[in-house]
């Protein structure tokens, strides 16, 4: 069932059993888990069904520290959320990503990798992925043409990615949500405040507003905030009537530990003979699976480096393509033109016979850093909510890890006699911790309401419940304690499905 919140009587009271705030990958995945149940689910979306500039303006904010993308362009504010412009990259986290690592400050989750296996498999259906198989051998057996480098797998291995079509949640699941008798979707219902009881131990209601001047109240038994990492933190911080520092922020953790994937060109590989290296090849909306080079857990421990992967782009193509940080602007139309030109350069340069040289492009996790954070500005948006300020701050561990990754890969490529690896200039000096102008992120926001067993170390517990608040949950990548190397969407959907199962048990036992 769908209702446009601009068209109902002002100050309406909306009531249900479950209230989900946000309809991106996490919010819609949560709603789908409640289909055909006896519970009334309220799904709140701030925008409508299409892109609107005035809705995007509500996401506008400031950035400081390491150069970053305009905040209003990094996330989409309408039904389906940022799945409206994602590329479909999916891979699982590794066991080491959940462990406490003595060389990675603030690392460690209160859950293990195997706790997500069941949910990864279920998330595949939401994302239109293939079989729950991530071994290179499985995909090479299916397609013998997928050939890569022959390296020692105990040191450098082929980590597989699968590719969603990519699934646009706003398109695929719109009819399912709108026609569901127990799912009540409200568009143009921006949550501007969360009201708790007097001692902030439980949530009573949320306030929604829209640009038509309407305000409504939503009451439910359980609340799930599934906006995105920046907006999740922003909303908790701005909801400060009962808790002056913001809800869930008694230990000053809300908004801290913002993480991105550092995505940056790092090295070149020159082969002894031309090769297509099809195992590492990616073609938009065609490729079903590909590999990236990854460093084994044993070698990560030995060299005390972060988890990261290396992808291949033919060097003569890569040298013509601008850095992502220069492509993505606040002007959506211009960004689309920039991306189209970037993709066209890749298409024009293809050679069937293979290439002699490739650029190695890294996606490496950012170390959890409490100084990398989201705070509130004094400036407010059109609905009266303080805008976000993102301070993105890297540490020397990220650059040390980049050097370590390519030292290991370079040694293995040399041993195999398949070629040589050359570090780019900015990585040559081991005492230099500065970053070049082309440094960018993957638009992967994580960690601002991080998961931790102890409330002193995080915002939510192992079930994504906000510490100290009985009925408030966070959904999505804001719960990540560490970023790992893979793109976050598959894991955030899996974590959301796990949360849904927990909530079903909770509401069932309460009856």
From TrEMBL:
Residues 368-495 form the Glucose-methanol-choline oxidoreductase C-terminal domain. The keyword NAD does not apply. Gene3D superfamilies: FAD/NAD(P)-binding domain. One of its GO terms (molecular function) is oxidoreductase activity, acting on CH-OH group of donors. Residues 17-233 form the FAD dependent oxidoreductase domain. The keyword Flavoprotein applies. Its cofactor is FAD. InterPro entries: FAD-dep_OxRdtase, FAD/NAD-bd_sf, GMC_OxRtase_C, P2Ox-like. It holds the Pfam family GMC_oxred_C. Keywords: FAD, Flavoprotein, Oxidoreductase. Belongs to the GMC oxidoreductase family. This is GMC family oxidoreductase. It comes from Mucilaginibacter terrigena.
């Amino acid at each position: 069932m769908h209702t446009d919140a601009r068209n109902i009587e002002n100050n309406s009271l909306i009531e249900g059993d479950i209230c989900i705030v946000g309809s991106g990958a996490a919010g819609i995945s949560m709603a789908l888990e409640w289909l055909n149940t006896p519970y009334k689910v309220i799904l709140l979306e701030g925008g409508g069904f299409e892109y609107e500039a005035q809705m995007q303006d509500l996401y506008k904010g400031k950035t400081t520290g390491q150069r970053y993308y305009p905040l209003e362009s990094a996330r989409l504010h309408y039904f389906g959320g940022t799945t409206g412009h994602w590329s479909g990259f999916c891979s699982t986290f590794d066991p080491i990503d959940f462990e406490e690592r003595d060389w990675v400050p603030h690392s460690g989750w209160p859950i293990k990798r195997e706790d997500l296996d069941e949910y990864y498999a279920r998330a595949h259906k939401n994302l239109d992925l293939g079989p729950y198989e991530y071994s290179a051998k499985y995909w090479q057996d299916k397609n013998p043409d997928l050939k890569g480098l022959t390296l020692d797998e105990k040191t450098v291995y082929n980590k597989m990615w699968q590719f969603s079509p990519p699934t646009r949640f706003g398109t695929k699941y719109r009819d399912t949500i709108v026609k569901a008798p127990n799912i009540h979707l409200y568009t143009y219902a921006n949550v501007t405040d969360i009201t708790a009881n007097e001692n902030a131990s439980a949530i009573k209601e949320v306030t929604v507003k829209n640009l038509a001047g309407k305000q409504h109240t939503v009451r439910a038994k359980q609340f799930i905030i599934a906006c995105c990492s920046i907006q999740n933190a922003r909303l908790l911080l701005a909801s400060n009537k009962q808790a002056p520092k913001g809800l869930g922020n008694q230990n000053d953790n809300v908004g801290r530990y913002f993480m991105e994937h550092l995505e940056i060109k790092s090295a070149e590989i020159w082969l002894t003979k031309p090769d297509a290296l099809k195992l590492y090849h990616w073609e938009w909306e065609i490729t079903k699976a590909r590999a990236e080079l990854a460093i084994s857990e044993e070698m990560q421990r030995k060299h005390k480096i972060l988890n990261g992967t290396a992808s291949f782009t033919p060097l003569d193509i890569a040298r013509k393509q601008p850095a992502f940080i220069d492509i993505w602007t606040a002007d959506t139309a211009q960004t689309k033109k920039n991306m189209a030109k970037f993709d066209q350069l890749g298409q024009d340069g293809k050679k069937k016979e293979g290439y002699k040289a490739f650029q190695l492009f890294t996606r490496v996790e950012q170390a959890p850093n409490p100084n990398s954070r989201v705070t509130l500005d004094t400036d407010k948006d059109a609905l009266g909510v303080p805008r976000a300020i993102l301070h993105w701050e890297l540490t020397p561990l990220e650059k040390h890890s980049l050097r370590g990754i390519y030292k290991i890969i370079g040694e293995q490529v040399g041993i195999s006699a398949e070629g040589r690896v050359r570090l780019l200039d900015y990585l040559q000096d081991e005492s230099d911790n500065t970053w070049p102008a082309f440094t960018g992120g993957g638009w992967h926001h994580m960690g601002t309401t991080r998961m931790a067993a102890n409330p002193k170390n995080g915002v939510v517990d192992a079930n994504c419940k906000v510490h100290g608040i009985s009925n408030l949950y966070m959904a999505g990548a804001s719960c990540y304690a560490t970023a790992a190397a893979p793109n976050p969407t598959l894991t955030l959907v899996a974590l959301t499905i796990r949360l849904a199962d927990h909530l079903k048990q909770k509401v069932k036992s309460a009856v």
